[in-house]
Amino acid sequence: MQILDGKKTSEALKAEIRAEVDALVAAGHRAPHLAAILVGENGASITYMNNKVKSCHEVGFESSLIKYPDTITEKELLAKITELNEDPKIDGFIVQLPLPKHINEKLITESIAPEKDVDGFHPVNMGRLALGQGTLIPATPAGIIELLDRYDVPTEGRHAVVVGRSNIVGVPVSLLLEGKYKKGNCTVTVCHSKTKNLAEITRQADILVAALGIPHFITADMVKDGATVIDVGITRVADSSKKSGFAIKGDVDFEAVAPKCEFITPVPGGVGPMTIAMLMKNTLTAMKIKRG
């Protein structure tokens, strides 16, 4: 069993991005600039945003963190998005989800210019991904593929089972694994809450991606020997033994499942760090596309 170490891999990737940025600046170009909008005081979102700002500094990016109270109107938020779309010094930006209930997330996502959509959620970017033309790919699925590639996990001709069909992870990772992308050419089955005989299907998986957000949902009896298991789940579970008062749990019962696997991602330290690193990579890509 080998751990797919997302923390180590993300640090290597960020070092590569930093070297490219340093070369750009040395050649007289400005550094990439990533902006982020945070609405409200969601603890997990604040932590995630702070990590993004820290990563921008590590790779030599300029960054702007724009904070609003959860009372901001949809109209005001849309006006800010228009401003960022039109700002030539902003290469990419994100609006951190979730948003307050009075704001239409779909409308907000679709208002971001596709060429600055470094989260990769805009319908144009999702359509390009489906057509095999993806460039700005959702960061978590892109991070999964990067891990599979750097650890040389075989995918071609393998059966991949994705549990979860969200537009953030499940759908895009299934397209990447099925398509003619790096680490693609799998035969893919997508499972969800309406799937019958789920364990019967997951036991067929050479590559199992768990993206439900339900702690320890995937148990040892759902995984075949020698499988590669990718755990996307990151859920805070109350734990009085921790200083923070909570523990981070994945969708996979790691202790029980790991001995059966050829490769597996831990939680924390697996897919999570890769998400932020791939967001940095998308921002650099967006800048390069704009420059031609």
Order of helices and strands: EHEHEHEHHHEHEHEEEEHEH
Given helix and strand content, the structural type is alpha/beta
Strand numbers in spatial order across the main sheet: 1-11-8-7-5-6
CATH architecture of the largest domain: 3-Layer(aba) Sandwich
Number of DSSP helical runs: 10
Mean pLDDT: 94
Ends distance: 43 Å
Overall strand count: 11
Helix content: 40-55%
**Outline, from the CA principal axes?**
globular
Q: Quaternary state, please? A: single chain
Q: Tell me the CATH superfamily of the largest domain.
A: NAD(P)-binding Rossmann-like Domain
Stated plainly, the CATH topology of the largest domain is called Rossmann fold
The CATH class designation of the largest domain is: Alpha Beta
How many domains? The number is 2
Strand content: 15-25%
Radius of gyration: 19 Å
Index terms:
292 residues; alpha/beta; Rossmann fold; 2 domains; six-stranded parallel beta sheet; three-stranded parallel beta sheet; 10 helices; 11 strands; 40% helix; globular
Give a verbal description of the structure.
The chain has 292 residues and is an alpha/beta fold. Strand 2 (33-39), helix 2 (43-59) and strand 3 (62-68) form a beta-alpha-beta unit. The chain is globular and about 50 Å long. 40% of the residues lie in helices and 17% in strands. The longest helix is centred in the N-terminal third of the chain and has 21 residues, at 6-26. The strands form three sheets. Strands 1-11-8-7-5-6 form a six-stranded parallel sheet. A three-stranded parallel sheet has the order 3-2-4, covered by helices on one side. A two-stranded antiparallel sheet has the order 9-10. The chain folds into two domains: 29-113, Leucine Dehydrogenase, chain A, domain 1 (Rossmann fold); 139-273, Rossmann fold (3-Layer(aba) Sandwich), CATH 3.40.50.720.
